[in-house]
Automatic annotation (TrEMBL), chain A:
This is Tol-Pal system protein TolQ. NCBIfam families: tolQ (TIGR02796). The gene is tolQ. The keyword Transmembrane applies. The lineage of its organism: Bacteria, Pseudomonadati, Pseudomonadota, Alphaproteobacteria, Hyphomicrobiales. GO terms for cellular component: plasma membrane. The chain crosses the membrane at residues 24-45, 134-157, 177-199.
Automatic annotation (TrEMBL), chain B:
This is TonB family protein. Residues 239-257 have a biased composition (Polar residues). It comes from the Bacteria. Residues 109-120 have a biased composition (Pro residues). Residues 54-257 are annotated as: Disordered. It comes from Oricola cellulosilytica.
Length: 243, 354
């Protein structure tokens, strides 16, 4: 009679039965890991799409920027909509530039440093935007295996207690409980491995985008400083001529 | 973000759904039929239990004498000074009679003490003991075969005449303090019977009694015999067994215990016929059944339930299992018949199905 019961317990090792027969804690761990996996995949998909969009926007912006179009015009066309990435840097720098000249500020050195600072702030904001939620991937990648391991340990503990209660060390009695407990570790790894890979890929992508933006900021800053110097020299030469 | 979440959720759902059906039942391993090697573990006891025989035992000695029963404890004799008699007990007529008898006999030292185990009593009664009639107390007395057949009686007439004399004239002579002669005449020990507890107790006393009598016994052989006899008789089986000494035989040399695998074999044979009654709590149906087997492995008589489970059906099922399988005869090593002639089997449903 006992044999029949044991055979039934040992025969079915499907995923669903493993999940259903697990204890409360193990179930909780499994559900949490599943949710973490869903969320991290959502982040990865979202970030990949967003980074692609950003890259294309950068390309387009650089094309228009170096096309010889007047910066004033570009600024006017961009400032209407909320630009992202390089556009945002450009708009921030141009806004500072225009403000300085509208108010009639004449100090070229302080103007240069103000523009740089405005671009730094814009760059930091953009980088934060790009790198947001990547830390979640890192956490999942490092913590999910441990969470899965915790579920496994708890499951094995309970199954050992059950084995002790059944007073049999038959493998058919021992195996299902351990398999069910190991499912938690498997889920932890399933959640962690893509998260780690995705995190590495996305953070290097974000680094590349940030590098492009920094390069653009430096270039734009040098262009602006050249402009400031030119304007300063023309004003001084005009003043000298007037004297 | 919503797009990513949606895509991720659907992907997970697809993978899980696929896993539920595709990974539902992994194929169980194909276990090839491995022919199991029977391994017999020879227990150490099998070698050490080889029974020690006594050389001087009778060739046609009894196979299995009844175990000895312990006689009532005899109190120590209280002999003050050189007194031979026990002051703690009142004199009995028989004591005196014995002494008289020995005084009358011309040469009591040559008169062989009765050789049968039931009759060492006259010798012992030289020492006044509280129970003069200790003969029925020892089981040795019940031994059927008279060992006189082995050892020829030199003077059977003397014995025969002495005994009636002792019985008939108890009161004619009262010489209580006379030194009784050869207390121990043991050079013809009946058969070397087992060391009954009584014997062990009396031996030191006999020795003490023999010492003062040494001058009376003329020949030195008596002394030698008395000394020789101090040796404890070795038992028939192992050193400490209660059994009659034997020359050592074929029957028990293999050790008399069943090995674990032999017990398992018997258990398997019985288990094949056993169908325990269905019950919720299988562990409550433990039954112990005792039964006897003959040499052919057939059940001898009716198995008796020694420890009932309280469930009549369970008891009957266990008994039935033994009888059904016993119709063919249990296959057990015949050389160890002594070990399985009387078997107690514990039926435990929770154990059997393991």
């Amino acid at each position: 009679m006992e044999q029949i019961g044991l055979a039934a317990a040992g025969g079915e090792v499907s995923l669903w039965s493993l999940f259903i027969e697990a204890g409360f804690v193990v179930k909780l761990v499994m559900i949490g890991l599943l949710a973490a996996s869903v969320w991290s995949w959502a982040i990865m998909i979202d970030k990949t799409l967003a980074f692609g969009r950003l890259r294309r926007a950068f390309d387009r912006f650089e094309d228009t920027f170096w096309s010889g179009q007047s910066l004033e015009e570009l600024y006017r066309s961009l400032s209407d909509r909320k630009p992202a990435g390089m556009g945002a840097l450009f708009v921030a720098a141009m806004r500072e530039w225009k403000k300085s000249f509208e108010r009639g500020a004449r100090s070229p050195i302080s103007l240069q440093s103000r523009i740089d600072r405005a671009m730094d702030v814009a760059l930091a904001r953009e980088m934060e935007n790009i790198g947001s939620r990547l830390s979640y991937l890192a956490s999942v990648g490092s913590a999910a295996p441990f969470i899965g391991l915790f579920g496994t340990v708890v499951g094995i503990m309970t199954s050992f207690q059950a084995i002790a209660g059944s007073e049999s060390t038959n493998l058919a009695v021992v195996a299902p409980g351990i398999a069910e407990a190991l499912l938690a570790t498997a889920l932890g790894l399933v959640a962690a491995i893509p998260a780690v890979i995705g995190y590495n890929k996305l953070s290097s992508d974000a680094g590349k985008l940030g590098g492009r933006m920094e390069a653009f900021a430096d270039e734009f800053s040098s262009i602006l400083s050249r402009q400031i110097d030119e304007r300063a020299s023309t004003t001084t030469s005009r003043a000298q001529a007037a004297e | 973000m919503r797009a990513g979440l949606l895509t991720s959720g659907t992907l997970h759902a697809i993978v899980l759904g696929w896993g539920l059906f595709a990974l539902s039942a992994p194929d169980s391993f194909d276990v090839p039929d491995v022919e199991s090697l029977p391994i017999e573990l020879v227990s150490l006891a099998e070698l050490t239990q080889i029974q020690k025989g006594a050389e001087e035992a009778r060739k046609d000695g009894p196979a299995a004498p009844k175990p000895t029963e312990k006689p009532p404890v005899q109190t120590e004799a209280v002999n003050l000074g050189e007194n031979e008699r026990d002051q703690s007990a009142p004199q009995t007529e028989e004591q005196k009679a014995v002494e008289v008898e020995q005084a009358v006999l011309p040469k009591p030292s040559e008169a062989p003490t009765p050789a049968t185990p039931p009759r060492p009593e006259p010798v012992r009664e030289v020492e006044p003991e509280p129970q003069p009639e200790s003969a029925p107390a020892t089981e040795v007395a019940a031994l059927p075969e008279p060992p006189q057949a082995v050892e020829p009686d030199p003077e059977p007439a003397a014995v025969d005449s002495a005994e009636p004399l002792a019985v008939e004239q108890p009161e004619q002579t009262r010489i209580p303090d006379r030194v009784p002669v050869p207390a121990a005449r043991p050079e013809q020990p009946p058969a070397r019977t087992a060391k009954t507890p009584e014997r062990r107790e009396t031996e030191p006393k006999r020795q003490a009694a023999a010492a003062p009598k040494a001058p009376d016994s003329e020949s030195i052989e008596d002394e030698v015999a008395a000394l020789l006899n101090q040796e404890k008789a070795s038992g028939g089986g192992a050193q400490r067994s209660n059994q009659q000494a034997s020359v050592g035989g074929q029957q028990n040399t293999g050790g008399s215990e069943l090995t674990q695998s032999e017990m398992d074999a018997l258990r398997a044979q019985i288990q094949a016929c056993w169908s325990p009654p269905a019950a919720l709590d299988a562990s409550s149906l433990k039954v112990s059944v005792r039964f006897k087997l003959d040499q052919a492995g057939m059940v001898d008589g009716r198995p008796s339930v020694t420890a009932s489970s309280g469930n009549q059906a369970a008891d009957e099922s266990a008994r039935r299992a033994i009888l059904i399988c016993g119709q063919r005869g249990y296959k057990l090593p015949t050389e160890k018949y002594d070990a399985w002639r009387d078997v107690v089997v514990n039926f435990d449903p929770s154990e059997m199905f393991r």
